[in-house]
Amino acid sequence: MKNKYSFIALIIFLFVGPFLFPNATITEMLIFGIVAISTNIMLGYTGMLSFGQALFFGTSAYISGLMLLGGFPLFLAIPIATLGSFVISLFIGYFCVKREGLYFICLTFAFNQMFYFIAYVWTEVTGGEDGLVGVERPAYIDTQLTFYIFTAVMFLFAVIALYKIVTSPLGLIFKLIRENASRAEAIGYNVRFYKLISFSIASTFTGLAGSLYVLIHSMVPIDQIHWLKSGDIIFMTLFGGVGSFLGPLIGVVGYIWLSDTFSIIWARWPLIMGVIFAIVVLYFRGGVSELLENLFKKYKSISRKTEHEQDIKNTKLN
Amino acid sequence: MNKILKIQNLTKNFGNVSAVSNVSIEVEEGTIHSIIGPNGAGKSTFFNMISGVIPPSEGSVYYKDKDITGFESYKLPHMGIAKCFQITNVFPKLTVRENVWASIFSCSHKSKIDLFKSMNDFETIDKETKKIITDVGLSHKIDDKAEELSHGQQRMLEMAITLGAKPDLLLLDEPTQGLAPEATVEMTELIRKLSKNYTILLIEHKMHIVMEISKIITVLNFGEKIEEGSPKQIKNSKKVQDAYLGRK
């Protein structure tokens, strides 16, 4: 039931979003929504913290951008870029899941920076420091609104696919690993294999988002493959809340809206984001989604109490 | 009688220290075979080598005449060997139902495609889950999270998870550890009941339980096998008495 309401709210958001935010902003929100929700499969469901998601986001953006520049159609560029992320995630994930905790984080970080430096020095292909520029959207999604609709469809496809995964036995296995990996192994699950699957799912969908991102501003800035972007992804996911399926989307909307708002007011705006992050980590471990859920529960219990008191009064009067 | 598990000269060295040295046992199908010994005898190391947690330095483990020495622990449930841990080892934030369901699913799903189906598509697993939970007396807690159960109930859940794998051989590592006297009686009864359908290799240090339910007892001391026999033989063994009293 809770999920049903969440999905109704999501559909309403998709319709209302373009009236609340500029088209480019709401499109960016949906793209990073895919990133954060898929990252949460790995972070919230499986308990693996990766500082390498920008690697997949950036690489897919480059592949997609280069294919479009080379004259390939969009409907080929997106799947191939996404497939590229999938293949890379299998290769990198194979090494990363051999280690746990801090060492896993360090490996993902190291791979991220390797890819960043490749993009940085390979200027003739990636544009180096200037980024990959001049990518044009096809005529059918030429306007910001049509591109938004296209992104919203892709977003819905990703959300439904990811939801199917978390409500399948595979989603349960991810939770087993998060809860107690050694016990999961003892009941017959090859933990390393399922960690790799989780890593690949998160990275493939992050890649899908990256392949769309190139179309927002017709370019791939190099910072999209930098580890700081991986940090942003973690921040958005935690800010929204890893405890619920759609929680990370709230984090994305909040993060992008806050950064857009503060960056106009004050050049040192990341300082404010840092303070907000510290408050979330210290006091709202479940992120904004858990905070909203608790407030809703509190409101419901108060209204129930008031109703109950009213009933008692009425009984006495009668 | 058929020997379901044969362990030959199992040895584990940690540097110069030998935790288990040349231990051989054979477990008869359909019996309870217990491993006992004073603290530091090497029982847990021995158990961990059989269950694939740590590889042995030397020796072999045969299950149904197949060499399974050093097999990764996740492969064993698929062959019919399930393990119950010494320390309560459940999935705390998941419900009792999910804990047991996952265990049954692990050994019963046919292909990787099943991983992507809806959880509601597995009617047989749902039924089996309910049955096992009822068997261990937790049906009234089926939708509670494992972390909300009492310690005794968590031990029962631990047992239910182990049974979910539908094993032929149960490896039980001190299943009554930390249980209140009433819960210990319940657990002992459950083990006795299980022995009708499963072969059990039991590590336990509560002597009265071991003596009451085992068919064969192997005694370890300082990593070596010092005695093996029926409960009566073990009770009367001078070597065992000396080991427990610390006499040389």
Task: Give a nutshell description of this structure.
The complex is a heterodimer of chains A (318) and B (248). Chain A is built from 13 helices and 2 strands, in the order H-H-H-H-H-H-E-H-H-H-E-H-H-H-H.
Explain the overall architecture.
The complex is a heterodimer of chains A (318) and B (248). With 318 residues, chain A is mainly alpha-helical. Chain A has one domain. In chain A, α2 runs parallel beside α7, α2 runs parallel beside α8 and α4 packs across α5. The longest helix of chain A is centred in the last third of the chain and has 31 residues. Chain A is globular. The two termini of chain A are 37 Å apart. The model of chain A has no long low-confidence stretch (mean pLDDT 91). The radius of gyration of chain B is 19 Å and the shape is globular. In chain B, strands 6-7-8-3-9-10 form a six-stranded mixed β-sheet, sandwiched between helices. In chain B, a hairpin with a 2-residue loop joins β1 and β2. Chain B folds into two domains: 127 residues, 3-Layer(aba) Sandwich (Rossmann fold); 86 residues, P-loop containing nucleotide triphosphate hydrolases (Rossmann fold, 3-Layer(aba) Sandwich). With 248 residues, chain B is α/β, with parallel strands linked by helices. In chain B, 35% of the residues lie in helices and 25% in strands. Chain B contains nine helices and ten strands. In chain B, α3 crosses α4 and α3 packs parallel to α5. At the A-B interface, α8 of A face α2 and α3 of B.
Which key terms come to mind for this protein?
heterodimer, A: 318 residues, mainly alpha, two-stranded antiparallel ribbon, 13 helices, 2 strands, globular, B: 248 residues, alpha/beta, Rossmann fold, 10 strands, 25% strand
